[in-house]
């Protein structure tokens, strides 16, 4: 059990027309926002189930959008700052580490198939390595963990490109880096269908099924499934103004 690592979720408000725009078409902006909200809720659940020194939501929300009382139990709030994604990532690492000088693992909200087991593995890797890296199938990365975060490790890395992951790994040159399995980021409809099929018991898969694309595995949640008591649904609904159902 690792309880010396902080886990951060970098989240974008699931607002129609502002999130998951590559899902439109075939999905409407409202449906894309619903899928984003479901993915966020699944991600928060995985983090909630992982032993950690702190669980943090790094939100692009203002004070009128979300407050500490809106967070799931056990989560803290850090507001994103900076312009590009490289800046928002760099300062999220910096601001969380400034609160507690402990290792930081950061994930986004595009991999609803994320599990507590993967997060626990990432945290354990930072006991022996300087960094841990989870590559994404599209050439980016779905997780980055740093034992001693430094904004210089991220600032200026080109984001949202097929070579983003390779560029980020070059920036970590000289550090000991542990690698995690590659995961699929949900960017377009094909990604959404594949991820839902891989993780059929997620809220993301159930939401996609409501829109007419069903994963091959049953969607009925078995008794005792950890999603019976989800900590992330209320927050996703708050951020998305009802996007999560």
From TrEMBL:
Q: Which SUPFAM superfamilies match?
A: Nucleotide-diphospho-sugar transferases
| Pfam families xref list | DUF2064
Taxonomically, which superkingdom?
Bacteria
Q: Which PANTHER family match?
A: GLYCOSYLTRANSFERASE, SLL1095 PROTEIN
The record's section on NCBIfam families has: glyco_like_cofC
Q: What is this protein called?
A: DUF2064 domain-containing protein
């Amino acid at each position: 059990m690792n309880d010396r690592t902080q886990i951060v979720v970098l989240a974008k408000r699931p607002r129609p027309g502002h999130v998951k725009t590559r899902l439109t078409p075939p999905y409407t902006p409202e449906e894309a926002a619903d899928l984003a909200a479901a993915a966020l809720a699944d991600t928060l659940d995985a983090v909630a189930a992982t032993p950690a020194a702190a669980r943090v939501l790094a939100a692009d929300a203002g004070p009128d959008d979300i407050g500490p009382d809106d967070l799931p139990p056990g989560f803290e709030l850090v507001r994103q700052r900076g312009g590009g994604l490289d800046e928002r990532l760099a300062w999220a690492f910096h601001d969380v580490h400034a609160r507690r000088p402990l290792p930081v693992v950061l994930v986004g909200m595009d991999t609803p198939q994320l599990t507590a087991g993967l997060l626990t593995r990432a945290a354990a890797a930072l006991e022996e390595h300087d960094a841990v890296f989870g590559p994404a199938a599209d050439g980016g990365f779905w997780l980055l963990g740093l034992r001693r975060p430094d904004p210089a490790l991220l600032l200026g890395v080109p984001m949202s490109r097929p070579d983003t992951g390779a560029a980020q790994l070059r920036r970590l040159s000289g550090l000991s880096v542990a690698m995690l399995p590659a995961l699929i980021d949900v960017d377009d409809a094909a990604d959404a269908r594949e991820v839902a099929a891989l993780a059929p018991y997620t809220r993301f898969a159930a939401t996609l099924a409501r829109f007419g694309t069903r994963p091959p595995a049953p969607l009925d949640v078995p008794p005792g499934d950890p999603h019976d008591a989800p900590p992330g649904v209320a927050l996703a609904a708050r951020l998305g103004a009802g996007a999560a159902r």
